[in-house]
Please model this.
Amino acid sequence: MSRADDDPEPRQRTLTEKGLTYELDVRGKERRHLINNLNNLSTSLRETLKYEPNPEAVKSRYTIWLSAYEQLLSVHEKVQGLLDLETAKHDHELFERQSVDFLTTKLAVEQWFMEQSQGRTGTKSDGKSVRGSVKTDVSSHVSIERVKEDQRKAELLARQEAVKQKRTIAEEKLRLKLKEEELEIQTEIMLVTLNHEFWLIWKKVF
Model:
């Protein structure tokens, strides 16, 4: 069996403690930068919803906002993958609290587009209804996101366990290979010793 058959999946790089600390620092700074950027974009987007009647203008700003939000989620997932289970749990809880405003903004924009498509004028009473609806939707959306994150975390844990098992198997294979080489060397030494002793005996006899 070839090496490709033994290990069909690409090898995963294992970070040293120093490398892991560096990677966490870089990803953490990147995530904080994205959060600050998204906060600014959210403020601007909410102002646009108030004063911009043109759906295309809102759509353009929302596209930029959505791209930044997806980038933040991607970096957050990378940070989570670098942390142990307990630390990742606390980190994600903090991230969820920081992300509530983003979810509110996202749902407010979606609600705005729905109102535009339905031709609603958005009176004060409607505004109260919308805000109440958004709060309800946020709670529902957070729950859905939490389920998704739990599923993603479970998948990461399964992958982590698979990597550990592969590493254990690889280490056991290496140990057996070294043991086999050691036995071969010992056998050669024994043969050489026996040949030497036989030669000494033969010399004494003859």
